[in-house]
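[stage:ingest] chain + small molecule (N-carbamoyl-L-aspartate)
[stage:ingest] validated
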Amino acid sequence: MKNLILPGLIDTHVHLREPGATQKEDFETGTKAAIAGGYTLILDMPNNPEPTITPDAISKKVKLATGRIYSDVGLHFGATRESSNFFKEIVDKVFALKVYMNHTTGTLLQKDPKALQIIFSSWPKEKVLMVHAEDETLKNAIKLAKKNGNKLHICHISLKEEIELIKQAKKEGVQITCEVSCHHLFLTEKERKRLGPFAIMRPPLSTKTDQDTLWEAIADGTINTIASDHAPHTREEKLNTIQPPNGVPGLETTLPLLLTAVNEGRLTIERLIELTNTNPRKIFNIPEQPDTFVEVDPNLRYTLDARHLYTKCAWTPFEGIKVTGKIKRIILRGNVVFKNGSVVKPPKGQVIYPVN
Ligand code: NCD
Ligand code: ZN
Ligand code: ZN
Ligand code: ZN
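[stage:predict] done
[stage:export] tokens:
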């Protein structure tokens, strides 16, 4: 079969870690990893040690990114009671508000019901409000979105129960979309022992039954997007701490794993494009990237190997897995940005803003 042409992939859930945690990743290494994974556009999460919760923090990120990014980068804004005062001022600069309703990396956990009500009611109704809300917490997120009329997007779903809650909310007319990540699609709790700290993430790896339900939800349209939830932490941090940090990298392994699923007949190429390009673009009002595409050889077989990754953390929970489908070339706005297995210098990425 001849090479396949895909639109540049879009990842709406990435942790680039700059400023504040550049030992894990930075704008350069993270966007090189994005390109090497077929992503020409990624959206950066706000849970840095210096969180994206003020207009100044946004300006600082934009300044740091400019001239150093290989893929296009847009930003999300972090929700706190105080940051809600800035919503009107920053709304055109970011793609979504991110509300952390469970404990995870960073300091943005929102538990106080009053603060949550202020956050949900102040965020503009026509713009996406993303939540980290696992299991029981998801019920509360849906309740708040229903009451306040929000456009709700659920991050990294991993459980059968969550799929059921989302289906029910859709029936009740709640504006709700959701994403899934490859660690939940391709690994289960059985892998925890083998991978140790490298399998620790939020939400945790779930059961085979949960995983089967996620694949069904991809097929029946309940799942709207696939995001990497690229959450790099150093080997050192994973191995030498009593409570290793939550998160795994994913930018460079997501497309090969999905192409493998296509090769095995578990996913169609049309659905892959919807989940990684068309749907994210619609949900988050992402601008078009003219003259941008990814050329892949859908039959090339190889083994995932951390030594070939651009991410600064230099490991993957998918180490040693055989995949089918490899990126040959990537064009971004007419520029060759990836060829012969390497990211091409100089960086051609831009900081981007939502279309109205
Ligand atoms: C993420 C991180 O490290 O920033 N970790 C994770 O386990 N997914 C945070 C998050 O997305 O919850
Ligand atoms: Zn999360
Ligand atoms: Zn995340
Ligand atoms: Zn090798």
